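Suppose you are handed only these lines of text.
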Amino acid sequence: MQPEIIVDSRDGLVARAAERFAATAGGAIEARGTFSCVLPGGSVAESMFPAFARLPLAWDHVHVFFGDERAVPETDPDSNSGLARKLWLDRVPAHVHAMPANQGDLDAAATAYTTELRSTLVDPPRIDVMLLGMGPDGHVCSLFPGHPLLRERSRWVAGVTDSPKPPPRRLTLTMPVLAAARAIWVAAFGAGKAPILREAIQDPSSQLPVAIAARSGPPAVFFLDPDAASKLDTP
Ligand code: 6PG
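From them, the structure of the protein bound to 6-phosphogluconic acid can be written out as follows.
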């Protein structure tokens, strides 16, 4: 199925994503009493999280998970959950499920996070909004192009020790969790991501992680600034 593509200025995208986040969360809380989301790090976090922090949501019904995490303490500028707390989650009473990526044994950490997902959500976990950033190589979470983890079918969370983007040691959600999500939103900014977005969106056989993720569940939503969308064919 074709993804939905939203092209706007960075500020426009932030406003539209925040509005949609609030509507989706409100609907989920009304229908099921709870709302779950997965967050990225990087430029999407920097741009969007301050606006999400201002949303008037029933935060005590919101469960926040992460798509990936680097093996660093939360005080390190490289920590995705540390960044999310600083820009957003320290200001609202949401339930924050940080990935324990800094505890040494990544396999044990992956098992612990799987247990946390399973005890909070149904099995398989149906995340209401999976918000993904995308690297210029097409990676999402810490699922990198050509990596064997792209073929993972049973584990929900896995350790990575060879990330091509530093730091090398990380935890990541896997494709089965992305595929089970109720919604996948991909946000990307800048001309450096335009060629990979063209392949991911226009080549139905693309094996880029972002393309596999976007095809895996209900139609994905892409939030792109004009530079990131500049190589897409206009409809
Ligand atoms: C990572 C991040 C990942 C991030 C993408 C995009 O380590 O790669 O954890 O979640 O969202 O890399 O990052 P940018 O938007 O900064 O390019």
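What can we learn from it? The mean pLDDT is 97. The chain is about 35% helix and 15% strand.
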